[in-house]
Amino acid sequence: MLDRSRGPVIGHFVLRWALATTVGVSVGLPLGLALSAPVGAIVGMVLVTPAILSLGASVLGISQWLVLRDCLHQSAWWIAVTALGFGGGLTVGVVAVEVVGAAVTGAPVRMSSTGTLGLTSSFAVIGICGGLGVGLAQWLWLQRRGYPHSRWILVNVAGFGIAFVVAFLITLGALGDFRSLPSVATFLLVSGFIGGSITSVAARQLQAVTLQVQVE
Could you say which DSSP state residue 4 is in? Predict the structure, then answer.
């Protein structure tokens, strides 16, 4: 069993993880979108979405790596794994929303003209896909490093799925729209914090396992 005195250490770790995820989402995704033009000129329009989302997700990888580097060996790989997983998952989510939306409505999906129910469903799909992508990628890396975590994928799917939906509804309720810069900033901050808070449950268990290994 772990020493009870390590409780504050684990609590501090959870807070750092939640804040790191908040920074990663709220800074990384806008950064990726801001670089869409130069990135698109390099990789082409077909690959621009996964490229900029993965670039933005690398900031999430870096912020989480800063928390993990003291308890996991070779944790720098976390940055690349997170970038590919979260960026790829978000891309799949966006494409799924566009394909299904076009099939249902018979026209391209436009966020500005989509109703509240449609936007809520869209953010649920994108959040779930993003959580599945990053959860699966990180879980595979943890498995290879000898840190099995059976709930890691599920917690990330639930965490980002819930985070995107709740953040959208909070933003809409507080600001009344979702098209202004303050609305987007609020959504990113709230979704990052909620996603980080929920996934910190799994991250705390991971840190506890590493502490136990170090004690033994």
Answer: G
